[in-house]
């Protein structure tokens, strides 16, 4: 009951996932990413352990397809699941179970995968993919957001939409972006609103936080002047 996109930016190495669904709280249970590992979207009759177990496998060097094969092998409900995976090197893997709701399917490209179920048709994924690939020079968060907007404009989930998530990890262990519309009449529009507000008010704060290379962080350094 979701469509989603997982992707890696080859220019920055950022990893991201975005999703829209007809249920509430999609960011809590369906969207996952880990710096130096990858990103995972687990949907339909989702199994969060696809990401909980799959991301550490990729962090240890397993490619996306191998990690996905390993987590599906121990999942007796795999026929009801849908999963999209991208690893830290941009390799992708997808799984659409034979018992997911029509219309279900997936598409893959260079460093990205889109997947969806209970959609109006394949046009949702096609529009999502086109929008994502349209301007590769944009930041990953903006590319994912534009892709979600394009997919939603096709009608997407036949039951409508209630929640959305945009999650991007950069070089640090904490996320660069984690936007959540947990229950909204127009979740894609709410993600766009939050993106604009937090780009102005939160990103400058994140830029001053401690990093692995700078444990003090610019925020504290400025206070010591």
Summarize the structure.
With 225 residues, the chain is an alpha+beta fold. Helix content is 33%, strand content 27%.
Tell me what the structure shows.
The chain is α+β, with helices and mostly antiparallel strands and 225 residues long. It has 8 helices and 10 strands. The strands form 2 sheets. Strands 7-8-1-2-9-10 form a 6-stranded antiparallel beta sheet, covered by helices on one side. A 4-stranded antiparallel beta sheet has the order 3-4-5-6. α2 packs across α3 (64-73), α4 (123-133) runs antiparallel to α5 (140-153) and α5 packs antiparallel against α6.
- Average residue pLDDT: 96
**Low-pLDDT residue spans:** none
Helical residues, percent:
25-40%
Judged by helices, strands and strand pairing, the structural class is alpha+beta
Number of helices: 8
C-alpha geometry: globular
Spatial arrangement of strands, main beta sheet = 7-8-1-2-9-10
Biggest sheet record: 6 strands, antiparallel
Strand content: 25-35%
Number of strands: 10
What is the CA-CA span between the terminal residues?
A: 53 Å
């Amino acid at each position: 009951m979701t469509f989603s996109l997982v992707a890696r930016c080859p220019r920055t190495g950022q990893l991201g996932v975005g999703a829209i669904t007809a249920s509430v709280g999609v960011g809590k249970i369906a969207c996952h990413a880990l710096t130096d590992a990858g990103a995972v979207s687990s949907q339909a009759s989702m199994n969060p352990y696809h990401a909980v177990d799959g991301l550490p496998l990729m962090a240890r060097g397993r490619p996306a397809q191998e990690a996905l094969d390993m987590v599906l092998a121990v999942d007796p409900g795999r026929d009801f699941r849908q999963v999209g995976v991208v690893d830290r090197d941009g390799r992708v893997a997808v799984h659409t179970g034979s018992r997911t709701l029509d219309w279900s399917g997936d598409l893959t490209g260079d460093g990205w995968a889109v997947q969806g179920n209970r959609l109006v048709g394949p046009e949702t994924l096609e529009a999502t993919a086109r929008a994502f690939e349209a301007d590769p020079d944009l930041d990953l968060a903006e590319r994912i957001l534009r892709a979600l907007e394009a997919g939603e404009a096709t009608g997407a989930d036949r039951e409508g939409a209630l929640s959305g998530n945009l999650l991007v990890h950069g070089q640090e262990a904490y996320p660069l972006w984690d936007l959540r519309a947990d229950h909204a009449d127009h979740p894609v529009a709410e993600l766009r609103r939050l993106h604009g507000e937090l780009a102005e008010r939160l990103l400058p704060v994140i830029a001053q936080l401690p990093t692995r290379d700078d444990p003090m962080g610019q925020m504290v350094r400025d206070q010591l002047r």
